[in-house]
Amino acid sequence: MITVNGRPAGNSPMTDIYTLKTMDLRDSLGPLIAQTRNALHHAVDQEFLRDPEVAPLDVTTAQFAIIANILKQNVNSACELCERLDYDRGAMSRMIDRLQKKDLIHRIPLAHTRRSVALEVTAAGKAAFPKMEACVVRVVNRMLKGITKQQVSDTEEVLRKMLANSANEP
């Protein structure tokens, strides 16, 4: 077996994909993921503004993510949301305040401690969620135009592997 720097050479899973010479900091996987995420957020924000049922809620993609995580991922604290969504506590607290003023979520003091509160989506938030979710689906489907289901499945598999690899990093 041919090896390079102690690793198998060729097109095996053990071969580095990028090198210092081939890594393009504008057009390689990492920057493309970030640009795609940003484009998705911008498009969803615009879709929320265009939708006659969602626009009056004045909700952003970031605020939608909070509601989605509480409803779908059983996340019920600001601390968990900060970890999941990668926001600092101050920014998260301000977003939760805005959602509470819009009557989409509320804080519930926990009986066993004075400091902690649980987050819960209100009835209004639960009613609005499917409308917001439909906006997200429309945007994602527009962005996937010309891409096959198999390509989407392959990309999802690659991203899951990358996440698993990142969890195993020292």
Order of helices and strands: EEHHHHEEHH
The third-level CATH topology of the domain at 48-143 is Arc Repressor Mutant, subunit A
The CATH homologous superfamily of the domain at 48-143 is termed Winged helix-like DNA-binding domain superfamily/Winged helix DNA-binding domain
Mean pLDDT: 90
Distance between the termini: 28 Å
Lateral strand order in the biggest sheet:
1-2
CA-based gyration radius: 20 Å
Q: Strand pairing plus helix content: what structural class?
A: mainly alpha
Shape: globular
Number of helical regions? 6
Measured by DSSP, the beta-strand proportion falls in: 5-15%
Query: Which second-level CATH architecture of the domain at 48-143 applies?
Result: Orthogonal Bundle
- Number of DSSP strand runs: 4
Helix share, percent: 55-70%
Largest sheet geometry? 2 strands, antiparallel
Task: Characterise this structure.
With 170 residues, the chain is mostly helical. It has a domain at 48-143: Orthogonal Bundle (Arc Repressor Mutant, subunit A). Helix content is 56%, strand content 8%. It has six helices and four strands, in the order ββααααββαα. The protein has helices at residues 29-50, 61-72, 78-85, 89-101, 123-143, 149-167; strands at 3-4, 7-8, 105-109, 117-121. A two-stranded antiparallel sheet has the order 1-2. Strands 3-4 form a two-stranded antiparallel ribbon. Helix 1 (29-50) packs across helix 5, helix 2 (61-72) crosses helix 5 (123-143) and helix 3 (78-85) crosses helix 4. Residues 1-9 have low confidence and may be disordered.
